[in-house]
């Protein structure tokens, strides 16, 4: 969470939020039981903690896969660039030869 700079400088008002709370004065016995007994809402076990070791391994794997993909794409583009440069040089040589032939015919 970062504060907006205009709020820090006093140009923008700060918003204060609050939430209502429900209070049951004299709940019925059934309502009391429903409120006090909590049952699991999900079917499977729910973990509140994050397994950072697993998360780190998965993140490293994703980074390595992205790095390999990027390296492959760069190599592929370098090959295409090399082929394009060779084609350009060949065409330049052909143009030069044709121009020389035209000049020699004109003389």
UniProtKB/TrEMBL annotation:
GO terms for biological process: regulation of DNA-templated transcription. The keyword Coiled coil applies. Keywords: Coiled coil. The keyword Coiled coil applies. Residues 60-101 form a coiled coil. It comes from the Eukaryota. This is YETS4 protein.
């Amino acid at each position: 969470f970062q504060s907006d700079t205009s709020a820090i400088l006093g140009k923008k008002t700060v918003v204060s939020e609050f939430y209502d709370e429900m209070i049951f004065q004299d709940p019925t016995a059934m309502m009391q039981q429903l409120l006090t007994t909590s049952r699991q809402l999900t079917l499977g076990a729910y973990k509140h903690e994050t397994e950072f070791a697993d998360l780190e391994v998965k993140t490293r794997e994703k980074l390595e896969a992205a790095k390999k993909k990027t390296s492959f794409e760069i190599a592929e583009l370098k090959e295409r660039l090399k082929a394009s440069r060779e084609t350009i040089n060949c065409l330049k040589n052909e143009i030069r030869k044709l121009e020389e032939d035209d000049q020699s015919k004109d003389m």
